[in-house]
Amino acid sequence: MALKWLRDNLKHLKWVLWFVVIVFVLLVFVDWGTGRSGGTREGVAVQVGNYSVSEQEFLHQVRDAERRYQSLYGDQWSKVREQINLAQQTAQQIVQRQLLIDEARRAGLRVSDQELQAQIMSVPSFQRQGGAFVGRQMYERILRANQTSPEEFEHQLRGDLLIDKLRRTFEAGVVVSQAEIDREIRQQKETADFQMIRFSVDPFLSKVSADKEAVQKYYDQHKEDFHHPEERVLRYLLVDSNALRRLLPVDASEVAKYYEQHQDEFRQGEQAKASHILFRVDPGASAEERAKAKATAEAVAKMARSGTDFATLARKYSDDPGSKDKGGELGWFGRGQMVKVFEDAVFGAKPGQIVGPIESQFGYHIIKVEGFKAAHQRPLDEVKDQVRFKLLETRAAAEAEKRAHALEETLRSNPPKDDAGWQKIADENEAVNLNVTPPFGQGEVIPGIGENAALSKAVFQAKVGDLGDPIPTSRGWVIWQLKEIEPAGIPPLDEIKDKVAAKVVRQEGIKLARTAAEAAAASWAKTDNAERTAKEVQGTLVPVNGHRHGAPLPGLGPAPGLDKAVFASSAGAVLPPIVIGERNVVIAKVLRVTRLSKEEMAAAREATRKQMTDMRVNDLLTSILAERRRETVVSINSELIKRFAPKGQGGQGG
Question: How many other CB atoms are found less than 10 A from the CB of residue 635?
């Protein structure tokens, strides 16, 4: 068992605890048993392969976990206790830890008696004032005081050291280049604010066409673009969860019961409504620049207090593109949604009061406090639709799974001979649809189903006609069959001429959109009026604040070309048109860019290298654990888990 004081003293083994918790969060591999009758032997709490943990030892670990939580949460522990299933957490941590130890042994790693002894003697709790070992008798007395024996303690410590060796073995094989490190530092620490005007290519498509000659020319020049690997076609029955939600009943009494049992879900904290005017100051601004911004803010605050319309002042002076056009309005917000200095200023004021200027990491704010809403319990009438949807969501998911397995039995006992047979089954079952996918390649998103690595792997190992196990998807449960295999190759033009023609039209549409965007960029640079420019060209104006390298953009997703251009520019620059994918062209004006100096980059490299190495090692270990978990028989005494589950989760709360 793991002693709290040992964990406090073995500083270089802290990663063991941290990693086990991370793996516990990411991997829910445990197949919960059905009590002793379902897997574990009498007196055994957890069985991982040949390794077992007795009920007595398990309960000791649960109590140890509870003591750690009590120390962490203090007086709040009694409230938090009902949210945490200590027994379930402990069981999962035992499983993950043992899988790591087994993997270390499989890799040929061992901990010698000398290494174990050296580690014990390095623990401050086992040292006299001068650093010498306290002696065997005192060592045993200390362990007994912590409710363990030398055998149990040394067994646990040997396991910790094994896991430490396993991790260091992986670390030795991980190489992170300086280019990768610098890219990660920039992604984490550099930010930019800008406005962009987005042009959709689609409206321009109606102005172009593709004749036979253009289609042939494009096909000849881009044949390899149409090469496809081996592809698969699935037919599948979808038990539609959305359709089931419309069919399944939920009584008003069930809604009321859920509401009564989950009051905390419907508590609305104190809220405030405010407007603000921001005078942005870059983090690297000089003292003179800060003083100038503050003086301007104070002058505008004086105007607001003297009666000048706050919304008018915000539209004229604010540097916050998200609220400027709305007169500085921020709407209703609760505590924890704004930076602390801003929140404290708002919640410490009275309705109608002008506050500021106050300084935050963004610059100086003048705030007009509009009003407050006290914390309150939202009434049942207000949330009954939300409760009903939540109940239906859970019920529909369970019902979809049940119906999917029933359909699987039908398909396996009496397989349909053709598409008509599959359609007949779909027609005879409520909320069931028959679908056939277009061809897709290995690793691609499965049309209509989405990303599912396990399903994709199973499909590409299947033979035509094979029936797969039911799987859950975002739309419901799916029962699939491999319908066709299409070999790799380049299809003849006759088979894909419509697809090629669409490419030609799209290419010409992009050219027209780019031309329009170039004119708009020139107009924007002259007038400095983003709203008017966007309106003139029927583009969409989108403010982007605090943007980081690689972050997705609203309505666009990741846009590396725009990222590169923004971070290479200076504040005030209007960027030339940038084509993003095949559907959008963007122009942008840079408002602010924060770049790191060479010295700042150098100072951050070592910590970032360690962080990236840790992440890659964790990815490797996570992948191995997933594989080992599939190979390892795990049994858990579910009756024991239920005994310690919080009352709201079906347990006795003991």
Answer: 22
Helix axes 55-73, 86-106, angle to 10 degrees: 110
CB within 8 Å of 254: residues ≥ 6 apart: 391
Instruction: Tell me the pLDDT tens digit for each residue of 562-589.
Output: 999 999 999 999 999 999 988 999 999 9
Neighbouring CB atoms inside 10 A of 181's CB total 20
On whether both 106 and 137 belong to a single domain, the answer is yes
Which residue range is the domain that position 253 belongs to? Answer: 231-257+389-486
311 and 364 both lie in a single domain? yes
Looking at the fold, whether 86 and 165 belong to one and the same domain comes out as yes
| % of residues, the chain, pLDDT over 90 | 29
Q: How far is CA 524 from CA 197, 518, 573, in A?
A: 10, 10, 10
Q: Is residue 28 part of a domain?
A: yes
The confidence score (pLDDT) of residue 40 equals 55
Question: Nearest CA to 174 among 604, 602, 605, 612?
Answer: 612
Identify the H or E element spanning 484.
strand 476-486
Report how far residue 164's alpha carbon sits from residue 21's, in angstroms, rounded to the nearest whole number: 15
Domain presence at residue 360: yes
In a domain, 605, yes or no: no
Clarify whether residues 72 and 159 are in a common domain: yes
Query: Which residue from 275, 363, 280 is spatially nearest to 319, judged by alpha carbons?
Result: 280
Whether residue 379 has pLDDT greater than 70 = yes
CATH number at residue 41: 1.10.4030.10
Query: Which residue from 531, 541, 584 is spatially nearest to 562, judged by alpha carbons?
Result: 584
64 and 168 co-located in one domain: yes
Phi-psi map region of 273: left, alpha, beta (phi>0 left; psi -120 to 50 alpha)? beta
Give me the amino acid identity at 134.
V
CA 118 to chain centre: 42
- Total-model pTM: 0.49
Q: Is 180 within the bounds of a domain?
A: no
Between helix 86-106 and helix 598-631 the angle, nearest 10°, is 90
> Do residues 570 and 634 share a domain?
no
| Residues 581, 541 share a domain | yes
**Same domain, residue pair 147 and 31:** yes
Report residue 168 as tokens.
């260091």
Pick the last residue of a domain from 347, 374, 401: 374
459, 486, 513: which is the final residue of a domain? 486
Distance (Å, rounded) from C-alpha 274 to C-alpha 370? Answer: 5
The answer to whether the CB of 493 falls within 8 A of the CB of 218 is: no
- 278: enclosing H helix or E strand: strand 271-280
Report d(CA 303, CA 321) in Å as an integer: 21
Query: b or e along 145-176 (b: 16 or more beta carbons within 10 Å of the residue's beta carbon)?
Result: eeebeeeebbebbbbbbbbbebbeebeeeeeb
pLDDT digits (tens, 9 = 90+) for 457-493: 889 999 999 999 898 888 888 999 999 998 999 989 9
Instruction: Tell me the CATH number at 338.
Output: 3.10.50.40
Phi, psi of 177 (to 5 degrees): -75, 160
Please name the residue that has the structure tokens 């709203």: 531
